[in-house]
Design goal:
single chain; about 375 residues
Length: about 375
């Protein structure tokens, strides 16, 4: 990794304050600058910062490359020290990059079909990318539903969470969720085309799959909220694409949102925040997410759909808005233009509070490391 300038990050003496971060989300304080937020950060961006700027040794504890965002094989054997080293790296990264929390998510084992290809990013070092199956998934009818290897929740599913929460530096909080939301996992189990057919031809099967998954995630969340130092359930579930929700708003309201209302209630009963990350156009269900589901904040914005400042104008008085730096601009803009663009977002969104700054979605492998560092620097020096 080579950069053309010096950066504020990684911070030598971080001072995270998760309690303050939570107060910002709740609208109890309006700080001089918005705190930072991030959803996921790809290894291709994280690795050079950890190794070349922080002097840490890079390790990978699993054959599965997408450890942070999906199923992960934990080697409970001689490789356990490698796993702990990997987790220590995660903690160190979020701590020294100026965040008030570390966010990690892991999925239950829910095997599906994926399309694998080489990651073409110059930074990816030969890694592969996986795309969800858009045709027909492993569940097609009642027979395949009954034969599917539905998981059971085990204590070992929470090793990562328990290790992190017992090794946090002072002031750093923990944020997590079940990797992949209810709607996303339904799409993967049925395939997108298969899901559309089942919705029309066999709605009872769709309801059965929804309820089976819904109860699993509910049980998982009830385990999560028992963790110490947990402050937020920050759930990802991409329910939209560029011009619409992926199924009709009526379908989401009938099958999906009642489960989310339950998940929010579980978090709120424990005094935790519940934030939803949902990519794509979901404007036509936002009032339901706010008034019925009662989410505390919304993450994931794309300028060509609805930029974060438009969300601020419409819903900023009701919920917190998180992130907003468009991934296309974060990836392509030269440094000076990126800094100007970011300051514009902060100027428009921060003055009334309930806003945090970060990427509009996550940090994929193709975001230049220098641009990611610039985003963090601009946020911390605003």
């Amino acid at each position: 990794m080579s950069t053309r300038r010096e950066f504020v990050v990684p911070l030598k003496k971080p001072k995270p304050n998760i309690e303050h971060w939570v107060k910002v989300i709740k609208g109890k304080v309006v700080p001089e600058r918005p705190p930072m937020v991030e959803y996921l950060i790809d290894n291709a961006v994280m690795k050079p910062i950890l190794t070349q700027m922080m002097g840490r040794k890079w390790v990978v504890p699993s054959e599965k490359r997408e450890c942070m965002g999906g199923q992960m094989d934990i080697p409970y054997n001689k490789s356990m020290e490698t796993t702990k080293h990997w987790l220590d790296n995660q903690i160190a990264f979020w701590y020294h990059m100026g965040y008030d929390f570390i966010r990690v998510e892991v999925s239950l084992s829910l095997p599906t079909q994926s399309r694998i290809a080489r990651d073409t990013s110059d930074q990816a070092e030969g890694a592969k990318r996986a795309w969800a199956e858009t045709g027909i998934g492993p569940i097609r009818d009642w027979k395949t539903y009954e034969k599917y290897p539905w998981p059971t929740i085990k204590d070992s599913d929470f090793f990562i969470h328990e290790y992190i929460t017992s090794h946090l530096p002072d002031g750093l909080g923990f944020i997590t969720c079940h990797a992949g939301g209810l709607f996303e996992h339904i799409c993967r189990l049925l395939g997108y085309v298969g899901m559309c057919y089942v919705l029309y031809d066999n709605p009872k099967l769709f309801q059965a799959i929804t309820d089976r998954l819904g109860k699993l995630i509910e049980e998982y969340n009830r385990r999560l909220i028992q963790l110490p130092n947990l402050y937020v359930i920050f759930q990802g579930d991409d329910m939209g694409f560029r011009s619409s929700t992926r199924v009709s708003p009526a379908t989401l309201k009938q099958y999906i949102l009642p489960w989310y209302r339950k998940y929010v209630e579980i978090a709120h009963e424990k005094g935790l925040l519940y934030i939803l990350h949902s990519c794509g156009y979901v404007d036509n269900i936002m009032d339901d997410l706010i008034d019925y589901v009662k989410i505390d904040g919304k993450h994931s914005f794309e300028d060509v759909i609805t930029p974060v400042w438009k969300y601020k104008e419409r819903w900023g008085h009701k919920i917190a808005l998180l992130g907003g730096v468009d991934i296309d601009k974060l990836s392509r803009y030269p440094i000076g233009k990126l800094q100007t663009y970011m300051r514009m977002i902060i100027d428009k969104c921060h003055k009334d509070g309930r806003f945090t700054i970060g990427s509009g979605s996550s940090i994929p492998s193709y975001v230049p490391v220098e641009n990611y560092l610039t985003m963090c620097d601009t946020a911390l020096t605003y």
